[in-house]
Write a structure and sequence with these properties.
The complex is a heterodimer of chains A (473) and B (365). With 473 residues, chain A is α/β, with parallel strands linked by helices. Helix content of chain A is 52%, strand content 15%. In chain A, helix 1 packs across helix 8 (220-242), helix 11 crosses helix 12 (342-357) and helix 14 (381-409) packs across helix 15. Chain A is globular, with a radius of gyration of 23 Å. Chain B is mainly α and 365 residues long. The longest helix of chain B has 53 residues, at 24-76. Chain B is extended and about 85 Å long. The chains are: A alpha/beta (473), B mainly alpha (365). Chains A and B meet through helix 1, helix 14 and helix 15 of A and helix 1, helix 2, helix 3, helix 6 and helix 8 of B.
Chain lengths: 473, 365
């Protein structure tokens, strides 16, 4: 009898967990709907030519680069052509073993620069600082290998401007993305960080550092990630942002108030998820100081990045992400249910903990338990199918709502065939891919528990979508 | 209750699976799944509907643009046709969007010609109606059109909108008011700009640029009576619009001891008469004041200030060193050779480094 009760308890725990998890995301979805609706009303203002008043805060774009010789030139070129009144680009070569520095020297005419380097945050040794002879606002910091966080910290030390924008070296920014992602800083002096949307660049065409044609990837792994990114950004972040509870700003494209980052001690070099950890830490510290602040997600500044196309690279990336999440939360327990925690401490942190951090454990455990219980005859066929029906049905609903938000707002994929392909992915990704992803996240959690050493990790990049890049400024 | 099956899938399993269970908890889960399925179908239908609506809108827009772009292009080059085609109701929003876009991209005669086309088509009447009763998107569009047209009849409605808490809408209305009558708008807007912190300074400056002369007059009258806590914002507006404020106002702000007021005043000091006060702030305890004082001295300092700025090159704060070095390098009476000699004579490594960096930055800037 006790055994039967235990089985029943676990069954309903797993079912309720799945319903709560997806219900939580649906609520975030509703919050995002309102923001996107309002944004849509102002869409035509975005198309108008913009006049700069000269009061826009200048921005230092930080580009940490480790073995990025395939894509670095096109990425930097795209950053040098952004529409913004005043900004500088700082590429940080983190002891690359390939020809990253040589490519930069050749493409941008770098010469050593006598920089009075300002050490505000401790970093690995700086070998040399270069400045471009073609673009006065481009500098390259060549340093000893120390990881992404260490590179970002070196970039912060060398930066001139009050806002710093971290961009991944394999990314392409849309021309107006910087002016849009800094808009909240103009509007509200309490804003300390903003993040933009990341999209999958595989299948797109890039010419001269600009994305010229949007397309869907042919590779199935990348295709799954297109829908995954829609879901993650359009309601995962926008929803939390609308209640000032956003705990993640993607390292691929985020803008920070430099003084706040320095006050928080910069990026932590001993973590993989340095982007998330910094945001959570900033929440914790600013909440503790009772300082009014905002962390905002801006849905339309688009940063395009190459998604992994093979099983192994994708698996490694997801394992790293999960480790990063675990490290970020574990390092900032002080935020959870803290006296001044507000939405981040009382809602976002527990949500992340319950559904993102421990989620894989419950999800994989739930699937295994259900299959095992069914095979052992502990639960009925009806209970088993109901569980699978709810778990997969809610997953499809969430992915579909991501697609709806995309269709309501940006229509990045204009062709009917593309929409059909995405609709098919919405269905298919819930029949194996999502479960596989959960499995990888569980491995990430396990590796975090075992405290295996954290590194940049190797991202296998093709960079073929950036192939057509003209030379010279 | 859950029914054990002994691990064997019964023949009628599928039928059972798709029949609502009788157990209340299982039934709740089942209906959650059904709800998710129905919602997914609904979302799917909505996505299709949105895509079809978008296609229809794009087609309508393409048709409207094909009809009106040549007319507006002809007007821009001074060849407005004598007889204009009639503007259909369905074409109006697309026409206004195109018209506003062209207006925002052009200057001078072309803008006048576009206004002429809009007036002949009577678009201002539609815009006034949109402004008074339309949804938010239409009101935003109408403010832009009426602003470009300089439509005086909309003044009162625009003023009402300007006071709305909706930041985007209120700023658009303010922009339109400035376009319609810069003098009247300056009288009305300047105190509002000083008062409303929710209006971003860069937007405010962008809007007021077209009325900087009348704003300067209003601001000068406003400053003496302004509450002290509002003064920094007023000074920031003056800085953004490059307005020269009376020296006594700045002098009082510099002497106030209030950090916000002192820094706001330092940003716009341009009168040599205030040189001594600025010099006195070079040793201020707050590094941001020292930074701004160094910058200000770069603008208004004389030859005797080179030593004062050189002393700042060894400041403990990097930004003070950097701005002091910039101020020195920008002094018109120091030649490159003199700068080299100055750098060679520096005994402090930090001072020499920062001066070296700024001198290296100079040729490329």
């Amino acid at each position: 009898m006790t055994h039967h009760l235990l089985i029943q308890f676990v069954t309903w725990f797993v079912l309720c967990y799945f319903i709560l998890l997806n219900g939580g995301y649906l609520v975030l979805n509703m919050l995002s709907l309102r923001t996107l609706h309002r944004k849509g009303q102002e869409e035509m203002l975005d198309d108008l030519p913009r006049a700069y008043s000269g009061l826009e805060p200048p921005v230092s774009i930080l580009v940490p680069a480790y073995n990025e010789e395939a894509t670095i030139a096109a990425s930097v070129r795209s950053m040098l052509q952004l529409t913004y009144s005043e900004y500088e680009v700082l590429v940080v070569n983190d002891g690359s073993k390939d020809g990253t520095l040589e490519v930069l020297k050749c493409e941008f005419g770098l010469l050593p620069f006598p920089e009075a380097y300002r050490r505000q945050i401790k970093t690995k040794e700086i070998r040399q600082i270069y400045r471009s002879t073609r673009f006065p606002n481009l500098r390259v910091i060549d340093k000893e290998n120390g990881g992404k966080a260490d590179s970002l910290n070196a970039g912060i030390n060398a930066s001139r401007y009050p806002l710093v924008c971290g961009v991944d070296a394999d990314s392409i920014l849309q021309r107006d993305s910087l002016e849009k992602v800094t808009e909240p800083f103009l509007r509200d002096p309490t804003v300390v960080a903003t993040g933009g949307t990341i999209r999958v660049a595989n299948g797109c065409e890039v010419t001269g550092g600009f994305l010229t044609k949007v397309g869907l990837p042919k590779n199935v792994w990348a295709l799954f990630q297109v829908v995954e990114y829609l879901r993650a950004f359009l309601f995962g972040r926008l929803g939390w942002s609308s209640v000032n509870g956003m705990l993640i700003i993607s390292g691929a494209f985020g803008v920070f108030r430099k003084d706040t980052v320095i006050m928080a001690g910069g990026y932590r070099p001993d973590t993989i998820g340095e982007d998330m950890e910094l945001i959570v830490r900033m929440h914790r510290l600013l909440r503790a100081k009772r300082q009014p602040y905002k962390v905002e997600f801006v849905p339309d500044p688009v940063c395009w990045t190459e998604a992994p196309e093979d099983y192994k690279t994708l698996k490694n990336q997801r394992i790293r992400w999960q480790r990063g999440l675990a490290e970020s939360l574990n390092a900032n327990w002080g935020l959870m249910f803290s006296r001044n925690g507000g939405v981040p401490g009382w809602l976002a942190f527990p949500f992340m903990l319950l559904f993102e951090w421990l989620g894989p454990l419950v999800e994989v455990g739930g699937y295994i338990f259900m299959v095992w219980s069914f095979l052992m005859g502990e639960i009925s066929w009806q209970a088993f199918t109901t569980f699978m029906f709810v778990a997969i049905g809610l997953g499809i609903l969430l992915s579909a709502s991501g697609l709806l938000l995309e269709e309501m707002s940006f229509h990045i994929y204009p062709r009917g065939k593309q929409l059909l392909a995405l609709a098919a992915v919405v269905l298919l990704e819930n029949l194996g891919y999502r479960q596989l992803n959960t499995m990888w996240r569980l491995i990430g959690l396990w590796r975090w528990v075992m405290q295996k050493e954290s590194t940049w990790g190797t991202m296998k990049r093709k960079g073929d979508w950036q192939a057509s890049t003209p030379k010279g400024p | 209750m859950i029914l054990p099956t002994g691990g064997i899938i019964p023949d009628h399993a599928l039928a059972v699976a798709f029949t609502a269970p009788t157990d209340p908890v299982l039934a709740a889960a089942y209906w959650t799944g059904i709800g998710a399925l129905l919602l997914t179908l609904l979302l799917g239908a909505q996505i299709i509907r949105l895509r079809m609506a978008l296609r229809r809108r794009e087609r309508r827009e393409a048709r409207a643009l094909a009809r009106w772009r040549p007319v507006l292009n002809a007007a821009i080059v001074g060849e407005t046709p004598d007889t204009l085609p009639s503007l259909r109701k369905s074409e109006r929003p697309h026409f206004i969007k195109l018209w506003v876009h062209l207006q925002a991209s052009l200057r001078g005669e072309a803008g006048v010609a576009l206004n002429d086309v809009a007036r002949r088509l009577g678009v201002q009447n539609d815009a006034r109606a949109m402004l008074a009763r339309g949804p938010r998107t239409e009101r935003l569009l109408a403010t832009l059109l009426l602003g470009h047209l300089g439509d005086r009849a909309s003044w009162d409605t625009l003023r009402t909108l300007a006071e709305s808490p909706d930041v985007t809408l209120s700023l658009s209305a303010l922009w339109a008011l400035v376009r319609i009558d810069p003098h009247a708008a300056a009288d009305y807007l300047t105190p509002l700009f000083v008062a409303r912190d929710d209006w971003a300074m860069s937007h405010v400056a962008g809007i007021l640029k077209e009325a900087s002369a009348p704003v300067a007059g209003v601001l000068a009258n406003l400053l003496p009576a302004l509450p002290q806590e509002r003064l920094p914002r007023a000074l920031r507006i003056a800085e953004a619009l490059r307005i020269d404020l009376p020296a006594d106002v700045l002098s009082a702000a510099l002497a106030s001891g209030d950090l916000e007021r002192v820094t706001a005043a330092l940003r716009i000091v341009a009168t040599p008469g205030l040189r001594d006060q600025v010099r006195g702030l070079l040793a201020h305890a707050d590094w941001q004041v020292r930074v701004l004082a160094a910058k200000a001295l770069g603008r208004i300092g004389d030859a005797s200030d080179v030593d004062r700025l050189t002393a700042l090159l060894a400041d403990r704060e990097w930004w003070v060193r950097y701005r002091a070095a910039q101020a020195i390098v920008e002094l018109p009476w120091l030649s490159r050779a003199q700068l080299d000699a100055l750098q060679a004579g520096l005994t402090d490594r930090f001072a020499a480094d920062i001066l070296g960096q700024v001198m290296a930055e100079r040729p490329a800037s």
